Amino acid sequence: MSTKVTKIFWSVQTGHAWWSGTNSPVMLEIYRDNDLLQRAYLEPGNTPRIDKDSMATYFWEFKNPDGLGVSVSGTFVPYTKYFPNGIRGHLKVKIIAQGNDAWEKVYIDSTVVSGELQFIPGTIDSSVWQERNDRFYFGQDVVLSTDQAEGHSSWTLNY
Fold it and tell me: To which CATH superfamily is domain 3-158 assigned?
């Protein structure tokens, strides 16, 4: 089943220990199969650092590199990344520590937003963008750090 992905959300629960938060940047790499689609920071811009014993939600929204939007019969159509075989088994997100300040991720609850342009029956040319949310849960407790003695330098979410 082909899927057109517009956004990916990550709700991250950090650990309870005093060292579970991090002041080091955390990087994301989003892949379709083995093709890198996007590289970005988990915390974009001037957002708070990832703290211990907290839940925070982050997201990535795919944007047209040309900055152009699309409209079909007056309906806005968001930019998408196409997954011809669906997202299950084909979407991977690699989380990469950028420093040796350890960060404990207890779990990540992720939502992938996709959609399709749907024709409205009984109209001449009207359509609506219909979104769908697929949720994934990653419950493995992992410590990320560039210091091998503290944890792993990266961790991959396989959807």
Answer: PLAT/LH2 domain (2.60.60.20)
